[in-house]
Amino acid sequence: DGGITQSPKYLFRKEGQNVTLSCEQNLNHDAMYWYRQDPGQGLRLIYYSQIVNDFQKGDIAEGYSVSREKKESFPLTVTSAQKNPTAFYLCASSITGRPEAFFGQGTRLTVV
Amino acid sequence: EDQVTQSPEALRLQEGESSSLNCSYTVSGLRGLFWYRQDPGKGPEFLFTLYSAGEEKEKERLKATLTKKESFLHITAPKPEDSATYLCAVQALNYGGSQGNLIFGKGTKLSVKP
């Protein structure tokens, strides 16, 4: 089945550590995105990529980094510079020419 | 500034009690308005896209409508399995291409009791 796979589902990080969240899609979508979801807030865009080897910052990119070396993969690294990293992270993708984004099942990151 | 406001924040219904969720938006030219359903601990599930005022889309017990300032998600004779958070998002015309630079509302949490 085609879809977007995020891993792990739950992730615990010690303060000062970098962690990488995985996002893989087999939908052949060109565009991929990372959102952050906090309780009582709407989803906020961290980074997006429309094509391999190219990506742009979203509204809250500080403390995060991404890469897009393959069409299928768009990993997100949460660095130690991110002040409040505990959140639910969602990866999404979309078809070129269509605005609808389709989401993975999310990764819940907790800083301990 | 582009903005999306959803109301109410939470809605409790009895099974079979129809109601509507509201999504009001301020955007510099609407490219599309989207409704998603999100279950606890899961990613949002795409429901509808609406592009222009007067457009309507239906899926089972859900019907989405669009005006120039707001969208409604009507739920007819809801069942307990309709319980979820419903998210509304918009994309402005100033965004080119297909990138889903969506602006999300905070959602409406719907609970349907048997």
Molecular structure report:
The complex is a heterodimer of chains A (about 110) and B (about 110). Chain A is built from no helices and eleven strands. Chain A has strands at about 5, 10-15, 20-25, 30-35, 45-50, 55, 65, 75-80, 85-95, 100-105, 105-110. In chain A, the strands form two sheets. In chain A, strands 2, 4, 5, 6, 9, 10 and 11 form a seven-stranded mixed beta sheet that branches. In chain A, strands 1-3-8-7 form a four-stranded antiparallel beta sheet, with no helix packed on it. Chain A is globular. Chain B contains no helices and eleven strands. In chain B, the strands form two sheets. In chain B, strands 2, 4, 5, 9, 10 and 11 form a six-stranded mixed beta sheet that branches. A five-stranded antiparallel beta sheet of chain B has the order 1-3-8-7-6, with no helix packed on it. Chain B is mainly β. The chains are: A mainly beta (about 110), B mainly beta (about 110). The interface of A and B includes residues 41 and 44 of A.
